[in-house]
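Researcher: Structure for this, please.
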Amino acid sequence: MPKKVVVADRAAPPGGPYSHAVVAGGFAYLAGACPVRPDGTWVTGDFVEQARAAFTNLARVAEAAGGDLTDAVRVGVYLRDFADFPAMNEVYVEFFGTEKLPARTTLPVALEGFDIEIDAVLYLGE
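Model: Predicted structure, token format:
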């Protein structure tokens, strides 16, 4: 089965030479979503506002790939400051709910210019 490159018109544009997502073998591999508006401007300041913007971008990419966040089987969350972990969890539940949650890794990383980045793998079926 060939791979399909996904471009999500309603999400923030990629910040470099990569695709929003790639669909292959019944899975969609979503690139990192950051708190950037579709017009390319950054959401700065409040962590919760940044997190909602990043999760919204991820949801829009999931939609463009043919699924939604309920199809996620794995999520990676990257935080500049691990003190934001509780606030991130609150926003995470807004987007993923509390049942049938995907596997997740959350790591503190050196991000520049924003406080959160999120990636995911979706299972779209065969």
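Researcher: Any notable elements?
Model: The first helix runs from residue 47 to 64. The longest strand covers residues 72-79.
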